[in-house]
Amino acid sequence: MSSHLPNCPACSSSYTYEDGTLLVCPECAHEWTPGSEQSAEEGRIVKDANGHILQDGDAVTIIKDLKVKGSSSVLKIGTKVKNIRLIEGDHNIDCKIDGFGAMKLKSEFVKKA
User: Is 111 exposed, middle or buried (0-12, 13-18, 19+ CB in 10 A)?
Assistant: First the structure.
């Protein structure tokens, strides 16, 4: 443990260590390069299927019938989703859909309404 290393940008742990050119957090296993934490905090850009930039609170429309994992339900094309929240990960939109409840969507399957 070295005091000159920055805290983990993912979990704020102070136990970061160097592994080659990477910095590593032993608590959450997050790895990053020195200096990259500033660009990650400045904000990620999430774009819809048409290339429009999405922001928290936007309304989107589903552009493709989507099967709901673990259910026989399908989200139909044209379903409107209001007040989205952008999150990290493969499914980068967190939202609530009327009739379905909480759901995570990929931005590539929506367009800005």
Answer: middle
